[in-house]
Amino acid sequence: MNQKYMVPLAGVLLLFLLAYAGVEGAGMQWFFGIIVPYVAVIAFVGGFVRRVMGWAASAVPFRIPTTCGQQKSLPWIKQNCIDNPDKASGVFMRMVLEIFLFRSLFRNTKAAFNRNEKNKLTYSWEIFLWVGALAFHYSFLVVIIRHLRFFLEPVPSCLKFLEFFDGIVQLGLPGLFISGAVLLLAALFLLARRIFDAKVSYISLAADYFPLFLIIGIAASGIAMRYFTKVDIIGIKSFTMGLVTFHPVIPDGVGGLFYAHIFMVSALFAYFPVSKLMHMGGIFLSPTRNMANNNRAKRHVNPWNYAVDIHTYEQYEDHFREKMIDAGLPVDKKE
Amino acid sequence: MSDELKPDELLDKVDHTPSQGTWMTESVQIRPGMYCYAAKPESVETLGLPNARSWNPMEADWKLPENWQEIIHNGIKDRLEKFRTFKIFMDVCVRCGACADKCHFFLGTGDPKNMPVLRAELLRSVYRNDFTTAGKLLQKIPGGDKLGGGRPLTLDVLKEWWYYFFQCTECRRCSVFCPYGIDTAEITIMGRELLNLLGLNIDWIATPVSNCYQTGNHLGIQPHAFKDMLDFFTEDIEEITGVDVAPQFNKKGADILFITPSGDVFADPGTYTCQGYMILFKYLKDKYDLDVTWSTYASEGGNFGFFTSHETMKRLNAKMYAEAKRLGVKWILGGECGHMWRVINQYMDTMNGPADFLEEPVNPITGTKFENAKSTKMVHITEFTADLIKHGKLELDKSRNANRVMTFHDSCNPARGMGLLDEPRYIIENTCDNFYEMPINTIREQTFCCGSGAGLNAGENIELRMAGGLPRANAVKYVHDKFGVNTLGTICAIDRAALSTLMEYWVPDVEVYGIHELVGNALILPGEQEREMDLRMEPLPGKEEADE
Amino acid sequence: MSKNAIMAGLVVFVAMALLPFWYNIGGSSAAPEPELSEKAKAAQKCVLDKYDMRANHMSLLDEWRDSVVRDADRLYESTNGKTFQMSLSTGEESCLGCHTDKEKFCDKCHTYASVDPYCWECHTTPKEINQ
């Protein structure tokens, strides 16, 4: 058994059981339903802000974008304005593509080596990680936005619009939301990659499995409540609205599964700022992507630039004067 | 080097499937052939860098200062504040594995710690342990370290850093594929800076840096010897062309200061590229009265300081502007070199600018303004030459390169730290008829490193270099087999040295050329005799019989 | 990226993250109470217990539909032993026969929870027919 994923799996199961038993057995709805979510929101927002401020506090001494295309040089050479931008507009496009379409991941290739008489190293386009990542992030986004129906009153029409498209397959009753199923499948795919791809498995840490298991747990418990075990969503909305209007109430009859769901969501939010999940904020600040490659045209200032010792020409000439004169090289001082 | 691995033996070792288990607890095995010798104390002393002493990586005692852990800890802390790159790259990696098989060292050695993500994790694990809230909390729980992926900084960890940060050529290929733009070069740069604080330098970097600081160039060529070298070339060129192309040195009031890596002056086949520059400058002098000077003080374009620390890079780089100012030239022209151009393009103006004593560069022959260099005031010679060719200012005889079947190796730094891709190609196409690209995944921004960059071009780590160069060589072999390519063009001095060795090892029929060697061969000098030989003194195509 | 830009981004992020806390200020958040008709009040018991009914009525209706349309089986024996005619909107024993006012009974909660059932794409309420 691999400790790297067994420990986080056990951890998530423990979180689930804790909330489930805490509610079903000990009647601690107020703790799992009210205290924990408030603490999680504070930890999430506060932690996120603190982390980003920490990044902002660090200097950006050099302009070092990774250039992925032709630079701007002579007027007749076609520049790649997005992958090697020299203007803010190009940088903006590059960042939009990076953030919304995971452009760099889209380039992913898979290397293979065939030990035979040709001994060829080959690189094939590897799209699955990109597809999986995109499916995961977008379905998660839709799921989160959809959940706003529990937190907003009246529910804005744009949310209804989103729900309409998310439920467009009209399968089953209550109708299937595609995003939930995609989220679960995509998370399972990412998990399978971590476990079965030898390279990814080797580099993975417990901290990589934990959020995956947590998200799988959240998605699975949500799906279970909506399609299988059923809960009173009016009661739940009165509960969630109570939280966001600071008049918390505990609804009647809502069972442990719901509190387990809420508890895992709270755990994810609270865990977010102290984990790699902060890549959500970090991507915006990555200096190899969000800077223009125009260093030679526009000077970048290093806030902590300091003077250094250098070996001056005078020192150099003093050292080599005779040899230079003998060789017929010009010198500043003749003796 | 009798114990050197044969290509077949090296290929037998390539296996990209890591073993089961965890990398964190496997202690490092430093293996001959894979590491570079420790820096000589004299070189470290010249530069006033810390902890100069003689030491040997194969011995248990690395003669570290007593408080080495504190030095590293403070070093990391300092750099987290100074470099947002460092802080973000420590924090945001999700270990998706996209970079894993992008590194030439991983592809060539199969060593999992050469996956860019793990190279960074070597440092990141210590960062997590000592600098993050989660890490500090988890330390208190038994086994918690492991859960958070943290580990304390032990001597073993330090040795692992040293071993693997000198198995990275800072080529940035992984950074192209990273969804967050995490740049392992940046992490290696930080890692090497930290190691430098303890005096853990390698000699192949420290000695060139010390030479460059004192003498003006990496190879330690003294001014009169530098002039002698170019005088030899002048004689050779006169023999070939009948024209005296003698260059000018340290000339005050020249139009342009020309700086190229000293490798071009000293080591074959870079010397032929150097002769190409000399022929070009002679042509421009005679035809258009352009006055170009060389400098013996700023006689190094390359900057091995970049592979030591930001500060050392700045100290070496300062000479370029200082000399341009002293000589009173209009602007600076830079020769074909890889990391030199990363430094010029992304660091020089910031470190040692503003260069307000120079003019915004204009090509006086074509009138072209080099808009992209108007602040730094330094132009790449392929930008310059491509502009001349485009405006029909050079008389070229392509047939003199007719026996060259070319492919072009994009050097890492101009490709991924600048984007100089089409300028050299344009020159190749105008000086040679036969040009074939290597497969798309191995050129331009996806180009593979020569395996010897960032100061790793030593002799003692030859196995590492040949393994790291495998992906590049493999792609050359592909076009060699398919199109009969016999010449690998490049715009980097380290490439010219490293790829020659690499080709000899993997694809022996391919020769390495600088782009301006092609120019030197093709350019028709005013008043030249009919050439029988190319710059390598080999008979020109169609002149083979005359040789017999 | 400049510190100002980062701060601006953070402000937007925090505003978005805390949307539910400011969006509802001033509005009424109380859950609606479905209004029971006199007849429903008198009946006291529906086909299932109250919580079950709230959580599960959509599935029940789905089952009823399949049973009626596919098997022509219209009888439903509820947990309290009473037998009902399975129908959403036809007859005195149907859902709407008892819960006569769709707007005050069904729609109140559906709107609150942003649920848009497609029952009414086929069914009409008796009230509408009478009008």
UniProtKB/TrEMBL annotation, chain A:
- One of the record's GO molecular function terms: oxidoreductase activity
Q: Give the stretches traversing the membrane.
A: 31-49, 127-148, 168-191, 203-229, 249-272
- Membrane protein topology class: Multi-pass membrane protein
Question: Chief location of this protein?
Answer: membrane
Q: Where is the NarG-like domain?
A: 96-280
Keyword annotations from UniProtKB, A to Z: Cell membrane, Membrane, Oxidoreductase, Transmembrane, Transmembrane helix
Q: List the record's Gene Ontology CC terms alphabetically.
A: plasma membrane
Family annotation (Pfam families) = Nitrate_red_gam
Has the keyword Oxidoreductase been applied to this entry?
yes
Location relative to the cell: Cell membrane
State the coiled-coil residue ranges.
Answer: none
InterPro entries to which the protein is assigned, alphabetical: DsrM (IPR047660), NarG-like_domain (IPR023234), NarG-like_sf (IPR036197)
Would you tell me the protein name for this molecule? Putative sulfite reductase-associated electron transfer protein DsrM
Q: Which organism encodes this protein? A: Desulfocicer vacuolatum DSM 3385
Automatic annotation (TrEMBL), chain B:
Task: Alphabetically list the UniProt keywords.
Answer: 4Fe-4S, Electron transport, Iron, Iron-sulfur, Metal-binding, Transport
Which molecular function GO terms apply here?
Answer: 4 iron, 4 sulfur cluster binding; metal ion binding; oxidoreductase activity
- Where the record annotates domain 4Fe-4S ferredoxin-type, the positions are 84-113
Q: Which PROSITE patterns does this one have? A: 4FE4S_FER_1, 4FE4S_FER_2
Q: Which Pfam families does the protein's record reference? A: CCG, Fer4_8
In the record, which residues are listed under signal peptide? none
Family matches, as InterPro entries: 4Fe4S_Fe-S-bd, 4Fe4S_Fe_S_CS, Cys_rich_dom, Helical_ferredxn
* Xref: NCBIfam families: DsrK
Protein name as it appears in the record: Putative sulfite reductase-associated electron transfer protein DsrK
* Organism of derivation: Desulfocicer vacuolatum DSM 3385
Taxonomic lineage of this organism?
Bacteria, Pseudomonadati, Thermodesulfobacteriota, Desulfobacteria, Desulfobacterales
Automatic annotation (TrEMBL), chain C:
Record protein name field: Putative sulfite reductase-associated electron transfer protein DsrJ
Which species?
Desulfocicer vacuolatum DSM 3385
Upper classification of the organism: Bacteria, Pseudomonadati, Thermodesulfobacteriota, Desulfobacteria, Desulfobacterales
